[in-house]
Amino acid sequence: MEFQEDLVPKYWYNIIPDLPKPLPPPRDPPDSEFSRIELLKRIMPKEVLRQQFTVERFVSIPEKVREAYINIGRPTPLLRARRLEEMLRTPARIYFKFEGATPTGSHKINTAIPQAYFSMEEGVNHLVTETGAGQWGTAVALASRMYGLESSIFMVRVSYEQKPQRRTIMQLYGAKVYSSPTSLTEYGKKLTSQNPDHPGSLGIAMSEAIEYAMTNGYKYLVGSVLDVVVLHQSVIGLETINQLRNLDEEPDVLIGCVGGGSNFGGFVFPFIGAQKGTKYIAVGSFEVPKFSRGTYNYDFPDSAGLLPLIKMITLGKDYVPPPIYSGGLRYHGAAPSLSMLIKEGIVKWREYNEREIFEAAQTFLQAQGIVPAPESSHAIKAVIDEAREARVKNEKKVIVFNLSGHGLLDLPNYESMMKRMS
Predict the structure, then answer these.
(1) Residues contacting residue 341 through CB under 8 Å, at least 6 positions apart
(2) Does residue 95 belong to any structural domain of this protein?
(3) Strands (DSSP E) along 276-393, which ranges?
(4) Which of 75, 134, 166, 224 is least buried, going by the fewest C-beta atoms within 10 A?
(5) Are both 206 and 85 inside the same structural domain?
(6) Phi and psi for 274 in degrees, rounded to 5?
(7) Residue 28: inside a domain
(8) Do 133 and 112 reside in the same domain of the chain?
């Protein structure tokens, strides 16, 4: 057990100093009536904000945070998908990092814990955030409770209705969960007056959470996209590097799905920094085509434009995604660091549709017995494609992917997909 705990890193990895060119900094819009960058100082915990702008390559993990990581089950398992290899008749070796093994069922807890810890250290007593599919809200609800803090979660309405189990778990942890858009904020009132049946979006829920935090003097926690989140999530990739080393394996292909980019960046960026791997694949949803149709511009992370502009691949802050099966991939943009790496050609991208990911999920769960989250099933589809290519070319490459969450709370979505597939 002690040996396993040694695999948990004592620092986070920050890719910013290792990017091919300087990352364009966040900025205020030219016609701004107030400074969004100054607003960050009001709504974000001080240490979280400091880490957001750090250029340190390695950032020390506080020992109490590292202990919390261990207590929630880190290191998470790195498993070889032998039955999937056999089913695909591939000479490739396939490994997956199983972030679904955490108590909240996904990678999101990796940044919720340090953000809640730094909030507690600062004397904060109430945290606010948004959530799409529910994984991030669940992680914040648990992390808040771990440090004796209250929490309020604005959940995208379509997910609030599709995933009542996620809502129940957050409430069991003690969080207050609201269906966004709500009547609790001016922005929410504006949207619901225009469309009482508005399905919501992650950008809208983000704006509501920020406004709610500002109005009540609470602190806001960010779940994806920003550099500090990708920094905290690097615990995934750093652990995986250690685990592969113990197996005497060198990875060739590294794959992860992308909503905002935190699980992909947290998994893949440490490998890029260590110059391990030859192919990095970011996988998105065909129904939310940010990679194929988005532009690389400065845009707001939230729909109301309360946060600073960041340069990223984006479909536009006003984009309202369809109420698809995969709530965690319904975000309009991608993390600035990931966006740059895609534009520079270092990271490749793919987009898959509902039928493709449903078939991939079914193949994986019948082979390995694990029900993957619909989001992670996008990565699985890319793995299957790479494994089949290896079979054609007779390449004994090593494919490693991040199974960023389990799908046990997504069964209603799978049931609806089954009906549509029949």
Answers:
(1) 19, 20, 272, 280, 347
(2) yes
(3) 279-285, 295-299, 310-314, 348-352
(4) 75
(5) no
(6) -90, 0
(7) yes
(8) yes
- Determine if the pTM surpasses 0.85: yes
| Pairwise CA distance, residues 151 & 82, whole Å | 41
Query: In this structure, what DSSP letter does residue 22 have?
Result: P
Pair 348, 279: CB distance under 8 Å: yes
> For helices 354-368 and 411-421, what crossing angle results, to 10°?
120
Same domain, 351 and 209: no
Q: List the single range of 210-219, 230-239, 321-330 with lowest mean pLDDT.
A: 321-330
144: domain range? 2-63+108-220
- Joined tokens for residue 272: 């890029």
For the chain, the 3-state helix, strand and coil shares in percent, each to the nearest 5, are 50, 20, 35
Return all residues near 197 (Cβ < 8 A) that are at least 6 apart.
Answer: none
Provide the pLDDT for residue 37.
84
DSSP result, 181-204: S-SSSHHHHHHHHH-TT----HHH
Confirm if 200 and 157 have CB atoms less than 8 A apart.
yes
Residue 242 counted as domain residue: yes
The Cα–Cα gap between 158 and 273 comes to 38
Question: How many domains, the chain?
Answer: 2
With 0-12 / 13-18 / 19 or more C-beta atoms within 10 angstroms meaning exposed / middle / buried, residue 284 is: buried
227 lies in some domain: no
| 176 three-class SS | strand
**Residue in 327, 320, 324, 332 with CA at minimum distance from that of residue 355:** 324
**Which helix (H) or strand (E) segment is 2 a member of?**
helix 2-6
Residues 320 and 278 placed together within one structural domain of the fold:
yes
10, 66 Cβ separation under 8 angstroms: yes
Same domain as 397, residue 270: yes
Quick check: 233 and 267 in contact, CB under 8 A? yes
Residue 279, phi then psi, degrees to nearest 5: -145, 125
Return the structure tokens found at 380. 């699985």
Judgement on whether residues 214 and 356 belong to the same structural domain of the protein: no
Give bridge partners of residue 130 from the DSSP assignment: 154
What does the pLDDT look like over 286-317, one tens digit per residue?
999 999 999 999 999 888 888 889 999 999 98
Rounded CA separation 326/318 (Å):
19
| pLDDT at residue 303 in the model | 81
